[in-house]
Amino acid sequence: MGVGRRASPFSAAAEACLEPSRPRWGGNRKEVPAPCVRVEACGARRRIDCRLPMQSPRFLLAVLLSSFLGACGGGDEPGAPGPAPIAPTWFAEGAAAAGLDFVHVRAHEQRFWIPETVTGGGGFLDYDGDGRLDVYCVQGGDPVPGSETNEPNRLFHQETDGTFTDVTESAGVGDRRYGFGCATGDYDGDGDTDLYVCNLEENVLYRNEGDGAFADVTAIAGVGEKRWSSAASFFDYDGDGDLDLFVVQYLNWKPEHEIPCQTSYGERDYCNPINYNAPTRDTLYRNEGDGTFTDVSIAVGIGAGTGTGLGLSCADFDGDGRVDVYVTNDGMPNHLWLQLEPGRFTDRALLAGCAVNSSGAPEAGMGVHAVDVESDGDWDLFMTHVREQTNTFYENLGSAFTDRTSSTGLSAASIPFTGFGLGFHDFDHDGFVDLFVANGRVGLWPPALSKSDPYAEPNQLFLGRGDGCFEEVVGGGAPGVPLGTSRAAAFGDIDDDGDIDVLYIDAQAPVRLLRNELPKQGSWIGLSVLGESGTPALGAVVRVRSGERDRYRIAHTSYSYCAANDPRVHVGLGDAQRAEEVEVRWPDGLVERFGSLEAGRYHKLRRGGGR
């Protein structure tokens, strides 16, 4: 299956022909019953479809069955549990040893203001074009507007020996506002990666000057959003060849909006975002091609919806050749902004089955990743949530999404924890994507798991089996690393050894760098997908064929939570020694084939270099 344009399964008439018992986007490839609890035992594929009211005894029984049968057992009997997983060391933590001495500050004085609960961003970028990933960490500090006590964000340059040097001051990127996420991309097409930072107050756009320094061009560019922004993504929504900018907003918040909240046992704690009753709209900036942007949110339809946004992922979810945007909202229905016609977005999340969970309830959406788990050529969605909710996996059926969390092995394991950053990558090169989840509480829930941090939780690692199921790795693949209140998690090959490493930000704690040290079970291939300017072609879709299997990836940096990720495409190939065929669909729809490529190395795929 190529990555060329498919006939759109979404049409303007899709909503009109919707049957109550059968969600469809139009042009169905697969169909499933509407709101249901779906239970499958991995391997046996036992399925129960039911339509039960939430809180009914039969519904609760179905949920219990879901956790039991969805455990992805490997035995001969349907649903039989497999052997207990061992606790291998997949990752070795080495941030401090490498010179990454950033320490995040959630608050100088804990006020229990809600910004303190979700701060902590950062990620990877190659700002100087030397081929090595550098690290940018976004600081919190004091959420009081105009505070002058905050420490700066920090940029670390990677040296040839794998250590890092703080170049914040010389690079000019030490913003001191109370920060959250960041996004990277070459918005001006000059061949250098630029940087956008999301803040509680005014956001900042840093233009890369190409000489190791950046210039603050926020005012000139017109992207200084002053509402609380959590995450952002550069992407080319209109196919004109330059990168536009989508910014996710969380709350219409001011300090005077804060209200005292307590735990059930009377201890002061953070409030639920719904208590503020202050949802806000997100922002889409169109790149005018002259260094400036125009806010087109209202004109294109994005301004029609409000929410409490924390995460986003950009992809062509309906296969019509136009990029769409999915936004996770905290305690409110999520948004699926489909570009049903050029330059016009409509929220189809409820219709498409990815606004709320299978019981019809909105969840506390944090991070999100659009990924093709089952290698069928369309983009599934996985997102993290607060404890006592499951993280959620929405399978893209080509006609709608269905909540298939209970049948993946990712349901019960997530209930005790609050997830933020996440990423699907083939960490062991066996040909199947695995999953890393960064966890950390947002409230005081007994018992505390750490004596030094009552909000700390263990991060989690799940091994992909290749059949749509996952098994948790004991110890999260990094035994011995202290528990933290993890927020952003960024993914990339920091040492260019062919495997994916993890950088994550712990609130009120040092940054962590997990180097992948697991003995590999197969080969890999890495692809730098480059536009005409020589910088990453964000939004390009890559198909890699090995054996009888196609694997699909997006060249993008903005997924997970408040993170900027390695833009290179990494694919585990299992036993294959070559990629038999590599195909790229560029953001404007052009498709090029690059033939057979050798495994075990990175290749540069530049637009115009294929056939």
Description:
With 611 residues, the protein is mainly beta. The chain has two domains: 91-522, Integrin alpha, N-terminal (Methylamine Dehydrogenase, Chain H, 7 Propeller), CATH 2.130.10; 525-606, Immunoglobulin-like. The protein is 5% helix and 32% strand. It has six helices and 40 strands. The protein has a five-stranded mixed β-sheet. A four-stranded antiparallel β-sheet has the order 1-30-29-28, with no helix packed on it. A hairpin with a 5-residue loop joins strand 26 and strand 27 (470-473). The protein is globular, with a radius of gyration of 22 Å. The model is unreliable at 1-41, 43-71 and 73-81 (pLDDT under 50).
Defining key terms:
single chain, 611 residues, mainly beta, Methylamine Dehydrogenase, Chain H, Immunoglobulin-like, 2 domains, 5-stranded mixed beta sheet, 4-stranded antiparallel beta sheet, 5% helix, 32% strand, globular
